[in-house]
Amino acid sequence: MRRFFLPPHALAGNRLVLTGPEAHHLAAVLRLNPGQTVELFDGQGKVHTALLLAVDRDRVMAEITATRHEQPTFASPLTLVQCLLKGKKMDFLVQKATELGVHTLAPLVSRYCENHGDREHQHQRWRRIMLEACKQCRRATPMRILPVMPMNRFDITAYVHRLVAWEEERMAPLPAAALAGRPGPICLVLGPEGGLHADEVAALRQQQCATFSLGPQILRGETAALAAIAIIQYLTGSLRPASITPTSVETAP
After folding, report:
1. DSSP conformational letter for 241
2. First to last CA, the chain
3. Is a pLDDT exceeding 60 seen at residue 229?
4. Residue 32 to residue 112: CA distance in whole angstroms
5. pTM value?
6. What φ, ψ does residue 200 adopt, rounded to 5°?
7. Cβ proximity of 222 and 86 under 8 Å
8. How far is it, in rounded angstroms, from Cα 6 to Cα 17?
9. Range 52-63 average pLDDT
10. How many CB atoms lie within 10 A of CB 129?
């Protein structure tokens, strides 16, 4: 069943009206018709089953027939602190981080960043990419994307685990036992294409961040991020087989 994003303003009682890109995708791209059933997620953990009533190119009306709650809870939510990568590499990383269950993305500007685009435009594009990835992977709660900020403004103190993947680290592996044995919010920091400056690493270490190595090869920025995310999500249980059971199902009258 096809899944779409439901903005809060589009819902009134059991009826909804989709406009804009979601309506265009449903009507003009997928060519769905009245009488067909779709799913819509509201970004707050609710997934609605809805019957299409009217389908125009830029406006879709539907009636909700059932609602269920899909809110998986993880003991160790992961925040990816990614120093900006160039061009479409950040787009790619937003998509894959969403699919891998990253809770929050914090894009930062560090000394060696070469990404100087329009920040508002970037944020809007990343959100569109993230929502498309949610629909594809059937994630009900979107990844949170913070505004771009300088590295020294990001508050890392709230995290139980503070990790920095650093290409100059030669000895320390990722602390697997600590991650698996001590639940709590995780902050994962990765540098841009040029890596982190030694002063930036020193400042992170002063905030009790632990540097670790991803192996002897020098990985591209997006490769390092995905490798580290996947390992951490596996160790903390976020990549285990799905065990989500709807907490409740509301059938519309």
Report:
1. P
2. 22
3. yes
4. 47
5. 0.84
6. -65, -40
7. no
8. 9
9. 91
10. 18
The chain-wide mean pLDDT, for the chain, equals 89
Q: What is the mean pLDDT of residues 110-124?
A: 86
- In the chain, which residue ranges form alpha helices assigned H by DSSP? 20-24, 88-99, 119-137, 176-181, 198-206, 221-235
CB 211 within 8 A of CB 201: yes
Q: What is the DSSP string of 68-91?
A: EE-----SS-EEEEEEPPSTHHHH
**How would you classify the pairing of strands 78-83 and 186-190?**
parallel
What are the backbone dihedrals phi and psi of residue 8, each rounded to the nearest 5 degrees, phi first?
-55, -40
Split at pLDDT 50, 70, 90, the class of 117 is: confident
Contact 41, 8 (CB under 8 A): no
Q: What share of the chain is helix, strand, coil (3-state, %, to 5)?
A: 30, 30, 40
Task: Extract the tokens encoding 174.
Answer: 């990722």
Beta strand pairing status for 186-190 and 161-165? parallel
Classify residue 100 by its DSSP letter. T
What is d(CA 50, CA 186) in angstroms, rounded to the nearest whole number?
A: 37
Is it the case that residue 226 has pLDDT exceeding 60? yes
Taking alpha carbons only, the member of 100, 97, 104 closest to residue 77 is 104
